[in-house]
Design a protein that fits this description.
Helices cover 46% and strands 19% of the residues. By secondary structure, it is α/β, with parallel strands linked by helices. Helix 5 packs antiparallel against helix 7 and helix 7 packs parallel to helix 9. The model has no long low-confidence stretch (mean pLDDT 92).
């Protein structure tokens, strides 16, 4: 059994793919398997990944045609994993070379933690070296309800941390087109603690795209309605959390997400009004 499985779902990896892949291949932790799921790439990514797989016995390469949705591709690499620990790795993010070893060592000595993660640096085209972000995600020592409240309010950089495989595989993962990682992380928070570990630096590449564009690229859908998407998100959260903790916990998780979006509604409406005003003025 490999100590760690790394799942890399990719479609048209582009110029970030090489550095992202190297940050996995060159990890100080050598007892890893790397599962690459190529989702019908059409930009030369497939040839590059086949060459990588031929030259490294730790790499298993799969190609899908027709293409899966992004959610299905993330599910696929998890289903193929056999390691004691598991990590998702996006095609445009990188990490320091001690990342996996340090997180695995931490989990070895922290039985209450189901996920370990470190420090986040947000990178952009303008700032490729990244800027350290204050990311308070740890739920160590909190009750289930407190873990849900805290998890509902954060951005999920830590989904790319190191998971206990047995735990993430038993989480009931429910699809939704917008913010699909939220139901996963909320349901996972019921199963155990998310913990902060030192010496694990994660470099997240932020692609500034509208919600509609993201859904089109990930799910190949032309139509996107934010109000329908929010409803689907809350329903998926309820279902996933109900499976993990029962009906009352499912409703509590639903309420946490509902009030989060309710508090954000005035800001959202103001952005829409400003957008409409700019459109009128341009006409």
């Amino acid at each position: 059994m490999p100590r760690v499985s790394v799942g890399i779902p990719v479609r048209n990896g582009g110029k970030q793919l090489k550095s992202a892949l190297e940050s996995v291949l060159n990890q100080t932790e050598r007892n890893i398997e790397i599962i690459i799921s190529d989702n019908k790439s059409e930009d030369g990514t497939s040839d590059f990944l086949r060459t990588v797989a031929m030259n490294d016995p730790r790499v298993s390469y799969y190609r899908h045609d027709p293409a899966l949705t992004a959610f299905e591709n993330f599910e696929f690499v998890l289903s193929k994993s056999t390691g004691h620990y598991f990590m998702w790795a996006a095609h445009d993010d990188t990490r320091n070379l001690e990342y996996i070893e340090n997180l695995a060592d931490f989990l070895d000595n922290s039985p209450s933690s189901i996920l370990a993660f470190g420090d986040v640096y947000v990178c952009t085209e303008i700032c490729p070296r990244g800027k350290k972000t204050d990311f308070n995600f740890s739920t160590a020592g909190l009750s289930v309800k407190a873990r849900l409240r805290k998890t509902s309010k954060i951005q999920f950089f830590n989904i790319y941390g190191l998971w206990r495989s047995e735990t993430i595989k038993k989480v009931f993962r429910v699809y939704c087109s917008w913010w699909p990682d939220l139901p996963i992380m909320m349901a996972s928070a019921i199963h155990g603690e998310f913990a902060y570990a030192t010496g694990a630096d994660f470099y997240y590449f932020e692609a500034n795209k509208p919600n509609k564009t993201r859904v089109q690229e990930q799910d190949y859908k032309e139509n996107f309605n934010i109000f329908v998407a929010v409803y689907e998100l809350q329903l998926s959260t309820y279902i996933a959390c109900r499976e993990a903790g029962g009906t009352k916990i499912g409703m509590y998780a639903f309420t946490c997400v509902f009030f989060k979006h309710l508090l954000q509604l005035p800001e959202f409406l103001m952005r829409r009004i400003k957008k409409m005003a700019r459109s009128v003025n341009s006409d």
